[in-house]
């Protein structure tokens, strides 16, 4: 009887921890407004059709700087896993995107100073913008930041998956809330 009680307690603890994680990547105020079927390829090919929609995007931060418009992040897109982490390889990327934080969600661009910094953002599709890659100018999707999760990549690679960022500081991987396959 004690064993069944202990098992039930462990199941309940896992469910509670999973609910906390989901809330942090997609906060309650945005839950239900995010288009979970919207992919990077969709907005890259036809951004005007999705203007104003909220979506999930993830990847590795290539640069972060303050501008007159707000904090600007340039991100190498990496597919999101079931638990909404950008866990794929850089070679799986379909391109880059830019995130503009006009609402001071990012306290300081130095948070993204490490070349391993990976993020999952909830962003509103704004359209396209031009970036400079080496000597070439390229059009990439642009999102207005609504929420960001900054992943502690060194710890996630070792199997321990908490993250730091903006919101609840520890979560251990809620699986399957947005389903399979990966999100862009």
Give short descriptive properties of this protein:
OB fold (Dihydrolipoamide Acetyltransferase, E2P), 6 strands
Describe the model.
The chain is α+β, with helices and mostly antiparallel strands and 184 residues long. Helix content is 19%, strand content 33%. The chain has helices spanning 2-25, 40-45, 153-157, and strands spanning 54-66, 71-77, 96-101, 118-133, 136-151, 163-165. Strand 4 (118-133) and strand 5 form a beta hairpin. The longest helix has 24 residues, at 2-25.
Distance between the termini: 45 Å
Q: Which range best describes the helical content: under 10%, 10-25%, 25-40%, 40-55%, 55-70% or over 70%?
A: 10-25%
C-alpha geometry: globular
- Side-by-side strand order of the widest sheet: 1-2-3-5-4
Mean pLDDT across all amino acids:
77
Helix/strand/pairing category: alpha+beta
**What Rg, in angstroms, do the CA atoms define?**
17 Å
CATH topology heading? OB fold (Dihydrolipoamide Acetyltransferase, E2P)
CATH class: Mainly Beta
Number of domains: 1
Instruction: Name the helix and strand elements from N-terminus to C-terminus, one letter apiece.
Output: HHEEEEEHE
CATH architecture: Beta Barrel
